[in-house]
Amino acid sequence: MSGPSPHIAVVGAGMAGLTAARVLEDAGYVVAVYEKSRGVGGRLATRRVRDAGPAHGLQFDHGAPAIVAREASFASFLQSLREKDAAAAWPAFNTDVVDAAALVGVPRMNTLLAPAAAGLDIRFQTRVRTIIRDGSRWRLDLDAPALERPHATPSVDAVIVTAPAPQTADILLLAEPDLAAAARAARMTPCWTLMIAIAGATKDAPSPRTIPVEGPIEMIVFESAKPGRAPAPLRVVAHARADWSADNLERDRDDVAAELTPFVLAAIGEDGAPVLYASAHRWRYARVARPVGAPFLSSDDGTALAAGDWLLGAEAEDAFKSGDAAAKALMERLSLKPR
């Protein structure tokens, strides 16, 4: 690149956002990542119990249970994570991809993207409310507790928004209503997840992808059977069906945990076992049910883009492909702009 390096904002530090940011940073652009939570990973998430008592320090991967590659580029990315000891194969997790093993982050799922995040300028607990056109640049309307002003407005040359589709639509609505409308065309389904730790359990086995029982639960994952995890106490993450989650979306999480816990214990043959810890987490935008069908969305001038799994499909690989494509399209666009 000739002249000063363009400044680029990436909204979201999940798979799509960190992939885009890594491509741009490695190419010499100045990148800042804005993440509303306290850590990276998005739905590659881990809950660490900090309650006082016997469950303190336990962890649960309460988002995506594992990831798998279908195409060579993502397989190469996952192999690089294994070489950096950030991921391990989990053969016990069934996958429909021939000759491909599922992978998990080690020692927990949200460390899977640590290599991609290394060295990046990531502004945690900073929510981007909207983006605003400012001549040939973009201003970000931010909401962050660490800021002296509640709505700071940094200015950048380009922005890639990688939030879930409904949140991306809100961020883009004022500046790019057509992109916002396209994002709203994606359909994402919710998921309640239940995290349980069981004292004195009699069994600990690899989890099936689904469980052959009727009821609200779609998948049960034996957390303590994953590579790099402590085997005891028995820890389980149960994912509720999308329809049940939608019907019960606004319920209190303690009520959801109280209803689902006996069902899960019975399903794994631990009915009546003493429970050390039980907590429910609501994912409003858990999985992509109807993707847009394009790798990314772009403004007419190519400097405001949207990326994420909701554009291509429901897997982590879809988020990777979208973030990679958006970053490369932006690089091509910026190389053509006079500076």
List keywords for this structure.
339 residues, alpha/beta, 6-stranded mixed beta sheet, 4-stranded antiparallel beta sheet, 27% strand
| CA-based gyration radius | 21 Å
Whole-number mean pLDDT: 90
Spans with pLDDT under 50 lasting ≥5 residues?
none
Major beta sheet, strand line-up? 7-2-1-11-17-16
Summarize the structure.
By secondary structure, the chain is of the alpha/beta class. 25% of the residues lie in helices and 27% in strands. α1 runs parallel beside α8 (316-336).
Can you put this structure into words, describing what you see?
This protein is 25% helix and 27% strand. It is built from eight helices and 17 strands. The chain has helices at residues 15-26, 72-83, 114-117, 165-172, 177-184, 242-247, 253-267, 316-336, and strands spanning 7-11, 30-34, 47-48, 59-60, 87-89, 103-105, 121-123, 127-134, 137-143, 155-156, 158-161, 187-198, 217-222, 234-240, 275-290, 297-298, 304-306. It has a six-stranded mixed β-sheet with strand order 7-2-1-11-17-16, sandwiched between helices. The chain starts with 6 loop residues before the first strand and ends with a helix. The relative contact order is 0.18. The model has no long low-confidence stretch (mean pLDDT 90).
